[in-house]
Amino acid sequence: MENAADALKIAGAVFLFVIALSVAIVSFAQAREASDTIMNFRDRETEYIDGNYYYESRGTERTVGLETIIPTIYRSYLEDYKVVFSGLSKPLYTLIRNTSTVDRYAFDGDFDNNYISSSDTNKEVFVQAILYGTRDLSPGSLWNNYYEGKIQLPTVSLYDQLKGKTIKEYLGVYYADEKLDEPPQNPSVGNVTSDDNVPEANKKERRIVTYVVN
Q1: Are 58 and 46 in contact (CB under 8 A)?
Q2: Strand residue runs (E) in the chain
Q3: What are the φ and ψ backbone dihedral angles of 163, each rounded to 5 degrees?
Q4: Burial 193-203 (b: 16+ CB within 10 A, else e)
Q5: What pLDDT is stored for residue 150 in this prediction?
Q6: Residue scoring higher pLDDT (132 or 115)
Q7: Residue 105 in contact with residue 98, Cβ under 8 Å?
Q8: List of residues 6+ apart from 96 with CB closer than 8 A
């Protein structure tokens, strides 16, 4: 009798083990299916472009004014995103590099840190000069110490270029290793040149705000 009871216990344990294993397999299969669904998910409000890593969110297009644009520019350096302008009559500024010049249409912390100055105080002077065309030209001023000879401001400030204009805002993302056209050839989508030699895992995703001036 004892042997029969032990046999029943063993059979019951095996039966419970088989049930638990079956439930676990089903659960893992469902979890994998859900994971694959999420990974392959495509948001209805977003347009993805095969071969590029840049996208534009259709749902974020809106008409904005200076009261939105100016704070966005200042926050771009704190929150590490890029602000690009399209449709300006003049560039934000012209970068002087040795014997050549480059017209710039973007506020970009990564670029500005390398070519202009990484100091937050200096950036405030830099942004104010571009926005309003005002700068301190006295000897020893921050402008003379960091920017004079490096950049050339246009004859019209950004504020005057934007004042009274209809401006549309587009939000998107791109990888920092990619190159974006400035000004964008197609502002609502963006043009990128991707570096295929950089593994995707090593690419840094950044936000971009594009303002289209009409």
Answers
A1: yes
A2: 46-48, 55-57, 62-64, 82-86, 93-97, 100-104, 106-107, 151-152, 167-175, 179-180, 192-193, 205-213
A3: -60, 125
A4: ebeeeeeeeeb
A5: 85
A6: 132
A7: no
A8: 149, 150, 151, 152
Look over the chain and give the mean of its residue pLDDT values, rounded to a whole number. 75
Give the total residue count for the chain. 214
Enter the tokens of residue 126. 């830099």
- What pTM did the predictor assign? 0.64
Amino acid letter for position 155: T
pLDDT in tens, 124-141: 889 999 999 988 888 888
Give Cα separations from 182 to 28, 84, 113 (angstroms).
47, 7, 18
The confidence band for 173, taking pLDDT boundaries of 50, 70 and 90, is confident
- Indicate the residue type of 3: N
Helix (H, G, I), strand (E, B) or coil at 64: strand
Burial of residue 205, with CB atoms counted within 10 A of its CB: 0-12 exposed, 13-18 middle, 19 or more buried: exposed
Which two tokens mark 207? 């936000």
Give residue 65's region: left, alpha or beta (phi > 0; psi -120 to 50).
beta
Task: Convert the pLDDT of each residue in 76-108 to its tens digit.
Answer: 888 888 899 999 999 999 988 888 898 999 998
* Backbone phi, psi, residue 185, to 5°: -70, -30
Residue whose entry in the numeric block shows the structure tokens 């690009």: 84
